[in-house]
Design a protein that fits this description.
The chain is mostly helical. Helices cover 42% and strands 8% of the residues. The chain has a two-stranded antiparallel sheet. The relative contact order is 0.10. InterPro entries: MKRN2OS-like, MKRN2OS-like_C.
């Protein structure tokens, strides 16, 4: 389920986000906190700050919703809040750069017909007439 904030208020969508870029915020060893974060997100989303009439495209939007939630969790954990630029630079830009590389690779493969495979394992070696990229 993807929570997002639009002119219609907080939305909970189960489909339609398949081509979005996910920005992981939990370190691998902290996945046990996911249920706790889900509870925080549900409570946070129910506050009056995220009612539909408060939505403003440039200042009170889905990005500010996500950042405010992250800062709410950070405050609960005694951490310093992130400002918009810091969050963008530390979390969003690296993932969008990586996504951009994959998209460029996909388009090159689509146009040129090449594909990439894993190299053969050391025990088997490549068969006659085969090659790897």
């Amino acid at each position: 389920v993807v929570y997002n904030y639009t002119v219609h208020g907080v939305q909970r969508d189960e489909v339609g986000w398949e081509q979005s870029v996910s920005v992981p915020l939990l370190q691998p060893g902290l996945f046990g906190l996911l249920d706790q974060w889900d509870k925080y997100l549900e409570d946070f989303s129910a506050t009056g700050a995220w009612l539909p009439h408060r939505y403003e495209e440039d200042h009170h939007n889905c990005y500010s919703y996500a950042l405010a939630f992250i800062n709410c969790v950070l405050a609960t954990e005694g951490e310093e809040p992130l400002d918009r630029d810091e969050f963008t630079e530390k979390f969003v830009v690296p993932r969008t750069r990586k996504a951009s590389k994959y998209i460029m690779l996909y388009h090159a493969i689509e146009e040129q017909g090449f594909y990439v495979t894993d190299p053969p394992s050391p025990q088997t070696g490549p068969g006659p007439g085969s090659g790897s990229c």
